[in-house]
Amino acid sequence: MTESAADRLLFDRLAGPYERLMPPTDGARLRAGIDLAEGPVRRGVDLGGGPGRGARAVGEVDWTVVDVADGMLRRARRRGLTAVAGDATRLPVREGTADAVLVVDALHHMPDHEAVLCEVARVLRPGGVVVLREFDPRTVRGRALVAAEAAVGFGSTFRTPDSLAGALERAGLSARVLDRGFGYTVAGVV
C-alpha cells in the first residue's frame, strides 16, 4: 500500500483545503531535475500527486497522476489531468514507458521507500528521470513538520537528502542532490 490507511483517510478529508494549506510547488526546481533526463520527456507520472500540483508546476508533459486518495484524484481530474488510483509499490504503468516520475512532498507518506523507488525504476525508460521533492527532518522547520504530522496522525517517515540519494542508488539509478534546505530536491536517472 502506498500510504497507511490512516494517511489515506486523512488525505481524502483534506482534499478540499489541501492546496490552500500547502506551500506553492517550485516548478523551477522540478524542471531542473526533469532536465537531467537523457532524451525528450513526453510521458510522466506524478506519483502520490494528489491534485496534480507537481504535474501542473512542470507542465508540457503528458502527466498521469497516481494516488490512493479518491478525493485527491477527483481534484486532479477537475484540473484536466489523467488521474488513476494506484499503489506506489505496484504502479499501473507498463515497464519502461515513463520518461519522468515526480514524487513531490509525498514519499514520506509511503511506508516502503525502497520498494517504491524500485517500482519507479521499473517504469522509467532507459535515460528516464525521477525527481523527488522532500523535507529535511534535520532542519528547524523539518523538525517542526515531523512533529506536526505526527500530531495529526500521519505515519510519515522523513529522510535526509543524502539518505534519499543512497536509496535511489540502491534502486539502480544514478542519483544527485540538486538542492538542500528545509525542502530539497533529489533526482535519479536510470
How is this structure best described in words?
By secondary structure, this protein is an alpha/beta fold. It has a single domain, classed as Rossmann fold (3-Layer(aba) Sandwich), CATH 3.40.50.150. Helix content is 37%, strand content 25%. The protein is built from 8 helices and 7 strands, in the order αααβαβαββαβααββ. It has a 7-stranded mixed sheet with strand order 3-2-1-4-5-7-6, sandwiched between helices. β6 (174-179) and β7 form a beta hairpin. The radius of gyration is 15 Å and the shape is globular. It starts with a helix and ends with a strand. The model has no long low-confidence stretch (mean pLDDT 91).
Shape: globular
**What percentage of the residues does DSSP assign to strands (E)?**
15-25%
CATH homologous superfamily identity = Vaccinia Virus protein VP39
CATH architectural designation: 3-Layer(aba) Sandwich
- Helical/strand content category: alpha/beta
Largest sheet, if any?
A: 7 strands, mixed
The overall number of domains is: 1
> Can you tell me the CATH topology?
Rossmann fold
Question: Secondary-structure element sequence?
Answer: HHHEHEHEEHEHHEE
Arithmetic mean of pLDDT: 91
The number of distinct β-strands equals: 7
Distance between the first and last residues' Cα? 24 Å
Number of helices: 8
The radius of gyration over CA amounts to: 15 Å
CATH class reads Alpha Beta
Low-confidence stretches: none
Tell me the strand order in the biggest sheet: 3-2-1-4-5-7-6
- Helix coverage percent: 25-40%
